Amino acid sequence: MAELRFDDRVAVVTGAGAGLGRAYALLFASRGAKVVVNDLGGGRHGDGSSSKAADAVVEEIKRNGGIAVADYNSVVDGEKIIQTALNNFGRVDILVNNAGILRDRSFMKISDQDWDLIHNVHLKGSFKTTQAAFPIFKKQKYGRIIMTASNSGLYGNFGQANYSAAKLGLVGLANTIAIEGNKSNIFCNVIVPTAASRLTEDILPPDLFAQLKPEFIAPVVAYLCHESCQENGSIIEAAAGWAGRCTIVRANGALLRSNIEDGVSIENVKTNWETIRDISNAKRLDSIQDATGALIASLEGLKNGNIESDNEDVFNFCNKDKILYALAVGASVETPNELKYLYEYHDQFSVLPTFFILPSIQVLFSSSIVKNAIPGKDIGLENVLHGEQYIEIVGDLPTEGKLLSKCKLAEVLDKGSGAAITVDIESYDSNGNLVCRNQCVSFVVGAGKFGGPRTGTKAVPCQPKPNRNPDATVSHKTTVDQAAIYRLTGDINPLHIDPEIAKIAGYDKPILHGLCSLGISVRLVLATFASHDSSLFKAVKARFLKPVMPGETLKVDMWREGNRIHFETTAVERNQVVIGGSYVDLKSVKASLPSNLTTTTMSNLKSDAIFEFIIDQVKADPGKAKSVGGTFLYNITKDGKQVKHWTMDLKNAKVYEGKPEGKPNTTLTISDEDFMLLAEGKLNPQQAFMKGKLKITGNIMMAQKLAPLLKTNAKL
Ligand code: NAI
Question: 21 CB under 6 A from ligand 1?
Fold first, then answer.
């Protein structure tokens, strides 16, 4: 990167005779700026004055070949300091308000003088210098201002009530200057430093003191003052070679009345206290309009009897989130056509369309729409099951990293044993364009019998599968860590990770997220009928029927009806349909299947489940497999055609789909149907061999060694 320079810029740094200010002044000068080194040269507590401190820094700058002038005014006379810049250099571009003193006392001992001196130097001083520089900045349509706050102000610190108040006052001052200056290219930011200086020599522990060089902070301040930096109105903390933005956030909060005529009672506040103070879904608001806008919206909601105060949320995402999601629904670098979901520099880098279900879940979690769906009932989220999900992408898949989602209660049905709550969620890009519609149907166990309607019209209906054999079937074995990975995409319900919670909910172990099984199923549908082209996706509707255990194999049966692909997902090991009545709508079908799919993944093979079973057996007792040794290649055929390879590398206790790396000891070729009959014990291996149903090449003796192992373990 080219060196960031400040040639032709004039920088005023207050309190630049020592500590942080000195480091800023030296850095600016070394990068070409003309610097006004302001310092009153007084004591640490605001007593006395001297020209020595400023002169020493000016001399140092000049020795280094830079340009600087000293100014000995107090910041309280801010206009004089700015005048020094104009008198000597004819302009001013950068103002770093840094001068500071301390008058620490416990709160009760703070005198008026302690209060006034601190406020004068920090708050009033910054006001005076900035007010003097502001018209010049405005005229030249350029200015960079730094205010110096402190963690004492952000968090409080014993014995620094006067200082804390002034320092947080500077944050308020910067916030408004940032707004007023913005259109004139005047940016104002706050630095929160921690550095070794005379102000901190008796506060910071000696070890830490040595690591906290002002020179580690100066580049952060300098960057904020560079013309290329567009940051405005931010608080940046910096120390010891680290920097980070600090911000104020607001909790989702609680609505304390349910219609416009109601008052608010103290008891209601007490009842809602935990929600009021819960910041787990807190948001950063960008402006006072954002802050009051939410309040006005909630007032409108009250007037309309439609409370929508907390029913909006912003979903931010980046490439890493898209990739994590793809991994969480089983995309793999081993499937060449899926690398584009996992590698941001891939020339066809894409996002799986079901990723855009995540904003709907986020806004559902952060709102109380489900909780308050039945008047008079407070619905406990532990009783809520995800019943159905629909997502429709409107136009193209969103590429922007920020979506605003709004959710609305569509209907609440009384199903007797529970309530079915349908919520519509719409997500918009920053131009206000609708990019996707989600619909989530939750089933709340035990919340029925409240006198509501039994059937409704709002939920997008499920569709029965066609009455014929599937046109395609694809399997995917989930891993035991599938739920542990999927939860990182946002659904952190402990039911999916915590064995204790899973037990309380009545499961043997944590269950997989329904949306993970759905993501896997849709990915396989896209692989099969859209050539992995996620831009062909239009919509999916799914109903969750049974939970899936991480580690189980999901078999997705698919039926094509025009551009609609019906699908049904089964947990193979329990032969349990887990997603049913479901379909994917595509913009068009691209069914010319890539060759690797037809021969490996694309299948309707009964033998898959047997091999999955063998994998589990070998994992459970690798010693037994190793005692057989050898590498066996199974060629599985269907209708006389070779459709799949399986390798049993028993030497290394590994069983996997595909061919082995080296030459196998024994190769066995058998049809899918005959393999199943062998597994069920309905076909004798010797007879199969004699009749030519089982072809064995290579080490036949070794194959005999294999038979007892498979008989005991896999019922082969
Ligand atoms: P320092 O004491 O080394 O430097 C402050 C300079 O300001 C001194 O040279 C002093 O003569 C000058 N000054 C004081 N009153 C003045 C006035 N009325 N007019 C002009 N100059 C005046 O202190 P340090 O640590 O470099 O602090 C710089 C700024 O950073 C201060 O605003 C301080 O409150 C702030 N700060 C420092 C932290 C730290 O860890 N060092 C932590 C948080 C904030």
Answer: yes
CATH at residue 659 = 3.30.1050.10
Residue 546 belongs to domain with CATH number: 3.10.129.10
Percent of all residues in the chain with a pLDDT value above 90, rounded to a whole number: 58
Q: If you take atom 43 of ligand 1, which residue's CA is the nearest one? A: 150
Amino acid at 429: D
Average pLDDT over residues 534-552: 96
Same-domain check for residues 593 and 696: no
Total domain count for the chain? 3
Q: Which atom of ligand 1 is nearest to the CA of 120?
A: 18
Say if ligand 1 is within 6 A of residue 78 CB.
Answer: no
Residues 589 and 610 in one domain: no
User: 231 and 151 in one domain?
Assistant: yes
Asked whether residue 307 carries a pLDDT value surpassing 70, the answer given is no
Residues marked active site are found at: 163
Contact 359, 403 (CB under 8 A): yes
Atom of ligand 1 nearest to the CA of 212: 40
Query: Is any atom of ligand 1 closer than 6 Å to the C-beta of 121?
Result: yes
Q: What is the pLDDT of residues 139-198, one digit of tens each?
A: 999 999 999 999 999 999 999 999 999 999 999 999 999 999 999 999 999 999 999 888
CA atoms of 271 and 378, how far apart (whole Å)? 12
Task: Give me the pLDDT at residue 594, please.
Answer: 36
333 in any annotated domain? no
Same domain for 218 and 81, yes or no, is yes
pLDDT of amino acid 97: 98
DSSP 506-573: T-SSPPPPHHHHHHHHHHHHHHHHBTT-GGGEEEEEEEE-S---TTPEEEEEEEEETTEEEEEEEEGG
Range of the domain at 221: 10-247
Which of 205, 227, 247 is at the close of a domain?
247
Average pLDDT of every residue of the chain: 88
Percent of the chain with pLDDT over 70: 93
Q: Is the CB of 517 under 6 A from ligand 1?
A: no
Helix orientation angle between 672-679 and 607-620, rounded to the nearest 10 degrees: 50
Closest Cα to atom 42 of ligand 1: 194
Considering the domain architecture, whether residues 88 and 61 belong to the same structural domain is answered as yes
The predicted structure's pLDDT at residue 573: 93
Residue 200 CA to ligand 1 centre (angstroms): 10
The 10 Å CB-count burial string (b at 16+, else e) for 409-431 is bbbbbbbeebbbbbbbbbbbbee
Gap from CA of 106 to ligand 1 centroid (Å): 21
Residues 668, 698 share a domain: yes
Confidence of residue 568 (pLDDT cuts 50, 70, 90): very high
- Among residues 598, 601, 605, 603, the alpha carbon closest in space to that of 672 is found at 605
Looking at ligand 1, which atom is closest to the CA of residue 15?
A: 7
Q: Is residue 74 in contact with ligand 1, taking CB distance under 6 Å?
A: yes
15 close to ligand 1 (CB < 6 Angstrom) = yes
Residue 132: which CATH number?
A: 3.40.50.720
pTM of the model: 0.53
Residues 623, 567 share a domain:
no
Does 99 contact ligand 1 (Cβ within 6 A)?
Answer: yes
DSSP state of 664: -
Question: Which range (308-317, 501-510, 517-526, 706-715) has the least confidence?
Answer: 706-715
Question: How close is the Cα of 12 to the center of ligand 1, in Å?
Answer: 15
Strands (E), 296-337: 312-316
Q: Mean pLDDT check: name the lowest of 166-175, 358-367, 481-490, 607-616.
A: 607-616
Q: How far is CA 74 from CA 42, 60, 421, in A?
A: 9, 22, 66
Residue 445 lies in a domain: no
Q: How far is the CA of 210 from the centre of ligand 1 (A)?
A: 18
Read off the pLDDT of residues 420-435 as tens digits, 9 standing for 90 and up.
999 999 999 877 889 9
- Does any domain span residue 689? yes
Whether residue 27 lies inside any domain: the answer is yes
Do 122 and 52 share a structural domain? yes
Among candidate residues 554, 572, 600, the one where a domain is terminated: 600
Whether 120 lines ligand 1, by a CB cut-off of 6 Å, is no
Identify the band that residue 297 occupies on the pLDDT scale cut at 50, 70 and 90.
Answer: low
Is a pLDDT exceeding 60 seen at residue 712? no
Torsion angle defined by CA atoms of residues 628, 629, 630 and 632, in that order, rounded to the nearest 10 degrees: 50
* Alpha carbon of 19 to ligand 1 centroid (Å): 7
